[in-house]
Amino acid sequence: MSANIAKLATMLEMQNAMNQKIHPQWFEQGFEWYRAIWVECAEMLDHYGWKWWKKQTPDTDQVILELVDIFHFGIAMRIDGKTSYQQLAEQLFTELNNVKTAGDFKQTLELLAGTAVVEKRFDAAAFAGCMQQIDMSLDDLYRGYVGKNTLNFFRQDHGYKEGTYIKVWNGKEDNEHLVEVVKSLDTEHPDFAKLVYQGLVARYPA
Fold first, then answer.
1. Which among 158, 22, 183, 64 is positioned nearest to 199, based on CA atoms?
2. Alpha helix positions (H), 98-191
3. Is the pLDDT of residue 14 over 70?
4. Do 52 and 99 reside in the same domain of the chain?
5. pLDDT attached to residue 1
6. With the C-alpha atoms ordered 199, 201, 204, 206, is the resulting torsion angle positive or negative?
7. How wide is the angle at C-alpha 86 spanned by C-alphas 89 and 117, nearest 5°?
8. Half-sphere exposure of 145 (CA within 13 A, CB side)
9. pTM for the complete prediction?
10. pLDDT the model gives residue 26
């Protein structure tokens, strides 16, 4: 199994675990993941900039974060409880390598959003096109995904649902702490996710 397929399989497994933590019977709920995708696409467009009547500079870091969020929803749509993570990862890998782009990033993003609205599915080829047009690699996606997924777990474990979670520590939001923790670690380490979690625990006020 190639390293990239292994990373995709890991993300699929982590997504299922996160979904189960939020709702143990998430398969039966019929969550509209496709709607989350197109709403995120619209939000991302604001970070990228689309208004021709004012000067705008793309906030690439924020765009990458939004793409990572979309990937959460996209892979949640692929998990069916029957197909193995390995098989799903291989299918995704093939689609991500069949890159689909339009004239520019905004138009490629509209391909992704359009498929979500009209066909209610995750267009991985258009997603790969968005990644390509902002120079985002699969490693960038993996790093961002594992980091955000682990932070979501950390939040749930520390009172997010109950409203007792502290989002700002030592003058920084948890997202900022996450970025610093992830940058200090080796993404190729087999326990990367566990190390991210431990790094957050070490920083969180007891």
1. 183
2. 105-118, 124-133, 138-157, 174-183
3. yes
4. yes
5. 56
6. negative
7. 35
8. 26
9. 0.87
10. 78
Q: Which of 14-18, 69-73, 125-129 has the lowest mean pLDDT?
A: 14-18
Tokens, residue 123: 């267009």
Q: Cα-Cα-Cα-Cα dihedral of 150, 156, 158, 162, to 10°?
A: 160
Can you give the residue range of the structural domain that contains 184?
A: 137-206
Query: Where residue 21 sits, what CATH number does that domain have?
Result: 1.10.4010.10
Q: 71 Cβ partners below 8 Å, 6+ apart?
A: 11, 127, 141, 145
Nearest to 142 by CA among 25, 2, 27: 2
Q: Which of 95, 116, 136 is the last residue of a domain?
A: 136
Q: How many domains does the chain have?
A: 2
Instruction: Please state, in angstroms and as integers, the Cα–Cα distance from residue 188 to each residue in 7, 156, 179, following that order.
Output: 9, 26, 16
Residues 200 and 165 in one domain: yes
pLDDT confidence of residue 36: 94
Q: What is the mean pLDDT of the chain?
A: 91
